[in-house]
Amino acid sequence: LLDGNSPRIEEDKAYVESQKYYLTDNNDCYQFWQKEKLQFNPSNDLRFMLDQEVDLNAINVIDKTGERQKVIDGIAYSNLKAVVEKLGITLNTAVQFAWHKLLSFYSSEQQTIAGITVSGRELPIEGIETSVGNYINTLPLAINWNKEQSISKQLQDIQQKIAELNHHSYVPLAKLQSNDERLFHSFVVFENYPIDTDASGGTLKFQLHSTSEKSNYPITILAYEKQQSLVLRMVYSENLID
Q1: Separation of alpha carbons 96 and 223, rounded Å
Q2: Which among 92, 135, 205, 211 is most buried, taking Cβ atoms within 10 Å?
Q3: What pLDDT does 25 receive?
């Protein structure tokens, strides 16, 4: 507009096409989750992470939240990037592994389940990557720990699992939970904002001035890369954790 050019308007059909896809392909998605549900154990016992005994299934709203942040940078960040590149996995997979490993340690359980936010854009629909619309969904990521497996194999299995969830992402979480009991009490969000280049070849700069976030889970982990570092934010219920 500043250069006096008229924008070319193209109709965004991806969102409508995605809804059609949900209707026509829901049998495959349904069968996938029916199989997954049979393997879900009860939600992990997080009492050793909390400061008081509480029935987490009875907590639907978190009134007061606190936050802590950890930045992984320098050599630690470089080494982490080198490892994930060598194994052919994403940083998201490494973060999921780390949090589930903590859940396993504190709960002493062989299966850990935490929520994972998926983009919902890995559908065979033209233009979905650039479509404007809310495709995201929160789904259960269940990991079965096998002491005989190497860490690299565990990481690769988690990455494969995440890919499967993305491919079968269009299911309401409520349909996966039985008897009004949550499958998990923590979830992990890996924020991955795209960085584009402008016409002159420079990099567009994005700055988030302010955000307002609310969670209905006792623990939420948010992770994102920023200026050669990995930022980990933990948002938690101050009524349950000091």
Answers
A1: 10
A2: 92
A3: 77
The tokens for 183 are: 């499958």
Helices (H) and strands (E) in the chain, counts: 5, 6
SS3 49: helix
Contact 33, 140 (CB under 8 A): no
Tally of CB atoms within 10 A around 88: 11
Alpha-helix residue ranges (DSSP H) falling in the chain: 14-24, 26-38, 74-87, 91-107, 151-167
Most confident of 84-98, 164-178, 189-203, 210-224: 84-98
As given in the structure block, the two tokens for residue 40 are 């879900």
| Angle at which helices 151-167 and 74-87 cross, to 10° | 70
Specify the pTM: 0.86
Q: What is the Cα gyration radius of the chain?
A: 20
pLDDT: which is higher, 158 or 227: 158
Other CB atoms within 10 A of residue 151 CB: 11
Q: What is the DSSP string of 120-134?
A: S--SS-TTTTT--S-
Return the DSSP state at 228.
S
Q: How many residues make up the chain in this entry? A: 242
Amino acid identity of residue 43, one-letter, is S
The Cα–Cα gap between 44 and 36 comes to: 17
State the pLDDT confidence band at 181, using cuts at 50, 70 and 90.
Answer: confident
111: its two tokens: 């299966």
* Tens-place pLDDT, residues 8-38: 888 899 999 998 988 887 788 889 999 999 9
H helices within 141-231, ranges in order?
A: 151-167
Place of tokens 């938690």: 236
